[in-house]
Amino acid sequence: xxxxxxxxxxxxxxxxxxxxxxxxxxxxxxxxxxxxxxxxxxxxxxxxxxxxxxxxxxxxxxxxxxxxxxxxxxxxxxxxxxxxxxxxxxxxxxxxxxxxxxxxxxxx
Length: 108
Ligand SMILES: [Zn+2]
Prior knowledge:
Layout: E1 16-17, E2 21-23, E3 30-32, E4 56-58, E5 62-63, E6 70-71, E7 76-77, E8 81-82, E9 89-93, E10 96-100, E11 105-107
Antiparallel strand pairs: 1-2, 2-3, 4-7, 4-11, 5-6, 8-9, 9-10
This protein binds zinc ion.
């Protein structure tokens, strides 16, 4: 788990750590660990940690819901951006904005 954040209500540092989040000892506010930017550690198919700005390669042919065509294995996505949700990789392939799951890419 990342370092404990400051309380989002009163901004005091060093909150108490509970099972799934934090509790502020000053104002009593409780919040889940995932709150904040909502993005946990994102790992690629090989277990490498991905970060904003990384280049990745798609390792699996993907069908894109609701869109024509898809993404072929081997396609490159440059300068990814990590976003919250179960499709945390946001970027462009061949000029098209796409979000995909982290386990379908590897760091280039
Ligand atoms: Zn507080």
